[in-house]
Amino acid sequence: MFLGHNLIWVMLLMGQLHGYKSCIDEEKIALFELRKHMISRTESESVLPTWTNDTTSDCCRWKGVACNRVSGRVTEISFGGLSLKDNSLLNLSLLHPFEDVRSLNLSSSRCSGLFDDVEGIPY
């Protein structure tokens, strides 16, 4: 029983050691580019302050970002509370590097003009 109990702890520890170390570099760079784009479209410079280009920063720990615990790939991006300038459009090509994103959250954001030209999407 004692050996089995210790074996479980060793297996859990090994699982933690072999889990993701950080987010995928390509996606981290893409998040930073997305942040720069959002700053250019907002009325404030203090947009997504935890999203930094610091090489030691783990983008999976940034506010508004969630990742797959095994792969380290971004699965959710949230821009809640942004106040976009009038007639600002979101450059959707900036989302291309994210292979596993399942959720893009723009709730609580003032997005005047963001979807005006898209048919079938109520504004």
Task: Offer a quick outline of the entry.
By secondary structure, the protein is α+β, with helices and mostly antiparallel strands. The protein has helices spanning 2-17, 25-41, and strands spanning 65-67, 74-78, 103-105. The chain has two helices and three strands.
How big is the Rg?
Answer: 19 Å
Class computed from helices, strands and strand pairing: alpha+beta
| Element order: H for helix, E for strand | HHEEE
Number of domains: 1
What is the CATH superfamily?
A: Ribonuclease Inhibitor
**Share of β-strand residues:** 5-15%
Give the helix tally. Answer: 2
The percentage helix is 25-40%
Oligomer: single chain
Instruction: Identify the CATH class.
Output: Alpha Beta
- Cross-sheet strand order for the largest sheet: 1-2-3
**CATH architecture, please?**
Alpha-Beta Horseshoe
Low-confidence stretches: 15-19, 115-123
Distance between the termini: 62 Å
- Can you give the mean pLDDT? 76
Largest sheet: 3 strands, mixed
Anisotropy-based shape: elongated
CATH overall fold name? Leucine-rich repeat, LRR (right-handed beta-alpha superhelix)
